[in-house]
Amino acid sequence: MRRWMHAIPARLKAIFLRRRIERDLDDELAFHVAMQTRANAREGMTESEAHRRARVEIGGVEQVKERSRDVLPLRWLRDAMQDVRYGLRGLRKSPRFTIAAVLTVVLGVGANATIFSVLNPLLFKPLPYPEPERIVNVFRTSPQSDRWPHSMANYLDHRARNTVFEHLAAIDWQDTSFAEPGQPAERLFTLRTTGNFFALFGVGPLIGRTYTDADDQTGAAEVVVLSYGFWQRRFNGDPTIVGRSMRLNGGNSTVVGVMPRDFEYPLFWGNIDLWRTFAASAQLRQDRGNNFLREFGRLKPGVTPDQAEAAMKAINTQILEENTNLDRSGGVRIEALNIVNPVMRRMSAFAFGLTFLVLLIACVNLANLQLARTAARAREFAIRGAIGGGKGRLLRQSLTDSLVLSVVGGAIAIPLSFWCTRLIATRQFADLTGVRVVLEPATLVFAFGCAMLTGLIFGAVPAWLASRADINDVLKQNPQSMTAGPGPQRFRRGLIVAEIAFALIILAGAVSLVRGLQRITAVDPGWRVDGVLAGRLNLVGPNYIDPASRRTFFQTLRDRVAEIPGVTHAAVSSSSVPTATFGASTTFAVEGRTDPVLAYNERVTAEYFATLQVPLRRGRLLTADDRVGRTPVMVINEAMARALWPAEDPIGKRIGNRGPNPNWREVVGVVGDITFPSFGVSSSVDTEFQTYQALAQTGTQFVNILLRTDRQPDVVAAELRRIVSMLDRDLPVYGLITARAAEERQTANLRLLGNVLAGFAGLGLLLAAIGIFGVVSYSTAQRAGELGMRMALGARQSAVLWLVLKQGVGLTMVGALVGLGGGLALGRLLSSMMPNLPTPEVAILVGAFAGMVLIALAAFSIPAWRASKTNPMLVLRHE
Amino acid sequence: MSKPPDLVQGTLDLLLLKILALEPLHGWAIAQRLKQMSGDELQVSDGSLYPALHKLELAGWITAEWKTSELGRRAKFYSLTRAGRRYLDQETAHWHRLTTAISRVLALKEI
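^ Those are the sequences you sent over. The predicted structure of the assembly is below.
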């Protein structure tokens, strides 16, 4: 131990103070020689003889110094540093190679790691619950959709009769009004669940307890569990929160626990402030007509989703037999719980596949560049080998060269990807609080490792082979025409072809996807999005129990809002702006038909159509006269009219509830279809039927106020808030958003994916261009002697240009044709993966092909052009 | 890394440590002392001396210090560290055991 401490200064000095060590060594030996000279002189030698003898006796000053250096630690490190210096000098001397190789590492590694880091949380993060693979969705299906919700009565039957689930829970997103005495009301994002919800997801509370089935009884005391975020934000993480009473929707609820932060998973659940039980009323428990519940099941160990689906189908059949008034076409379906919808997931997986292809191009680039460089340096290696450079030492030198390259590239790529990831995280994922987009170090290491390995394999192995070559063979060859034998030459051409082909495949794939996404997002929504502002109100509490008081409230609200200066139209509706979907759907009975019809069920005031500018096709729109006491009326969309009454006039037909009391509503008008942008990529078939009833004849608890204005939305929004607070101090207006923003939020993921894909295409192209340019310009530089000779002998510039270019044209065409084939195959794969995606256009492939050929040819012709410009005299003199 | 040719491996180290155990010395003086003490029986070239000293220094058995010498010139004086002294004792004992054993073997009479 102590010995070590004594050794430390000497060792540190040996490592860090090399100049000092050398000086000490000089001084020490000089002192020795001086002493010995004096001793020799005392024995009678002449001054010069004494000095000479002293130097001989020590055995040669330089030799002693070298042997002393051998004793010093970390000889290998000093050698390595020498190699690094040599490597850097080599890179400086061939800037074109260096720039091409470093850019390849930067783009291939840095950009790839960034893109992967962005996709990673969407693709590969497992759900933050134990054994997530056992958690499934249970959907209701119909001919129109395979993702419908269930009614409470059906859910209770499912739960009581199934033997496949450990837990079967139901949930619904319902917002809650939180009003403390003397404070403005707050709207809380609430998930209402059955009592077994927490047991199903298998996560315990941070403090307090979670609720159980015992808390979820009709008439039980209301309990709530808070989310970590809400607890921190609203109560400053008060540790004594458990047991506190909260005034929710005008009643008292008790806080029993707080969930840990990781339990929140906004990507899937949205933002959640608190969880509440349903404590369903006896009436709700009997209700089979109101379908609003999402079911989640945790499979019993060993039960497969297929077995569970078969079991649930059997139960569903029983229920249908017992309840003859239910829709006979309804089924059930089980789907593994995924955060992202399956189509998005597949597209992300596809994009992820492209990252590999880009990485592959990067590696091919490096391989090719290294091969070209090593071939050019074969002479150097052979000579170094011949004059005694150890093979190990030479191998180490070329390994170091490759490493230096990778490190230089990495030094640029790593900070760059950190920065880009942060940028994307803040720009694109700012809304998704739970998604932490951070650079994945593992990704970076992986991509970097691939690049490095490629560099090493293709740099060091040929170098080693070169060092073993017979020096005579090598030296006999013309040093400047020394590219390589026909074998390696063919290999390198193969690599260029592969590079062009890969790049074209990426380009074709990415471009067709991006075009497809564009067509999905650019679909005509059927209403005018710009200029519409939307906000929500939740009419709960004692003031709004009576439906008549609600109707009065929203009529007053609408009239007051319409008076805001600059507001041209204002309407109240049961769902917000139709950017994603309508809020509710109902299975209707149609007079004269036996089969029930599933349709969106929107309740609106008369001005709705004018506000959104939905065109009237037949009959009339709703009016202020359609109110309680008048004939119940309904407006339907074109698709529904066409499907139900293809040859008849839909006006005057009647649609009503199923069951003994149909409560018929007369169709008075047909309006244009509203299209949701997600239709194209959704894996499920949604209904295209849309119905509108007069809000005055139906009512709703959740009220959305929609208005069209030509003024600044925030000015109007402030006015709107003021009006609502004048009408009811305790009523919060929330979710104020322009329709445009709502739409953009809806398509944000698609647009992000589009950007990522476009980025890939660009990256692949750029890499391929860099690779071609680097290799061709490097090998053309090596041919300078030959080309100069040709020109000296009278070859014209154009002939030289063509000589170099000829090869490029051939390689480009072969590569591009292979790539075209690959692109076609990829297109087929894409359309089989995503049947709803618009099929790729031939024009896109042709365009990609032409683009690729142009870029490749440009990469070939720049070095060719430069070669043709060389002065033959200069080149020949150099030789 | 070459070893002193005429000495059993490690023996030079032992001699150097022993010499420095008596007093701190600079390289030239160590060489002179070596010649005197071994009565010219042991041939150690001056060239082998310095790498050996540097190795001991790096191992932590001895330390070095620049001091003014009798010539008025700066010289590098080596001295034994405490660890070096322990090592010397240990190696001396080891050496005795080894030589005794070898002597005993060599003393066996041939039959």
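Helices of chain B lie at 11-22, 27-37, 46-59, 82-106. The interface with chain A takes residues 1-2, 26-28, 31, 45-48, 50-51, 54-55, 57-61, 63-64, 66, 69, 71, 73-76, 81-84, 87 of chain B (CB under 8 Å).

Shout if you want it in another format.
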